């Protein structure tokens, strides 16, 4: 298979999350990141998963049932994360920006909600906490969100956070961009 944005994100998550942690999957999609977080936090941890699409909520819940895992799956925007967790209480937050693969091509994340969601996530992270962002772009959702998020990331306080943005320099098309953030 080789390396891709998903494999890098999952490797980062596996290195960041441990049993008993509190994690958020801010864009549940098909539930794969939610399931991974549940497996890593174990029975002593907690996972919240968010999505605005009913089909994504249903797919996430079905995958969790199939694997015997538990998470609180919430139909709400990732921009509302702070309504569900206290400041500096979360160990890891995962985002996938773009659209649900195989879903409605007219439903996708936008900078208008995604940047406030990242900002909220930064306030929710504990010291030593981490965040993984996978930025999918092109197609129906275009490049505006990608450009806005990448510009925003450059403004994050470097005394509080470290931000690493990956670039698949030799890959054709619009390869997803992996981003990793650590709270100092």
Topology:
Elements: H1 5-16, E1 22-25, H2 32-41, E2 46-51, H3 54-67, E3 72-75, E4 90-97, H4 111-124, E5 125-135, H5 144-153, E6 161-165, E7 177-183
Helix pairs in contact: 4-5
Folded structure, characterized:
33% of the residues lie in helices and 24% in strands. The N and C termini lie far apart (33 Å). Strands 3-2-1-4-5-7-6 form a seven-stranded mixed beta sheet, sandwiched between helices. With 184 residues, it is an alpha/beta fold. It has helices at residues 5-16, 32-41, 54-67, 111-124, 144-153, and strands at 22-25, 46-51, 72-75, 90-97, 125-135, 161-165, 177-183. Helix 4 packs parallel to helix 5. The protein is globular, with a radius of gyration of 15 Å.
Short description:
The protein has helices at 5-16, 32-41, 54-67, 111-124, 144-153, and strands spanning 22-25, 46-51, 72-75, 90-97, 125-135, 161-165, 177-183.
């Amino acid at each position: 298979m080789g390396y891709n944005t998903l494999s890098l994100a999952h490797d980062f998550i596996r290195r960041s999350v441990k049993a008993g942690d509190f994690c958020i999957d801010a864009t549940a999609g098909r539930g794969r990141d939610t399931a991974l977080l549940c497996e890593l936090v174990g029975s002593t941890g907690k996972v919240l998963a968010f999505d605005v699409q009913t089909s994504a909520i249903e797919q996430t819940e079905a995958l969790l049932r199939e694997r015997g895992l538990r998470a609180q799956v919430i139909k709400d925007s990732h921009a509302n994360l702070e309504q569900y967790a206290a400041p500096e209480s979360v160990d890891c937050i995962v985002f996938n920006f773009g659209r649900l693969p195989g879903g409605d091509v007219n439903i996708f994340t936008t900078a208008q909600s995604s940047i406030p969601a990242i900002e909220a996530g930064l306030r929710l992270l504990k010291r030593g906490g981490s965040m993984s962002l996978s930025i999918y772009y092109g197609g129906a959702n275009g490049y505006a969100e990608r450009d806005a998020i990448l510009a925003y990331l450059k403004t994050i306080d470097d005394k509080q956070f470290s931000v690493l943005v990956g670039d698949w320099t030799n890959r054709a098309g619009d390869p997803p961009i992996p981003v990793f953030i650590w709270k100092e």
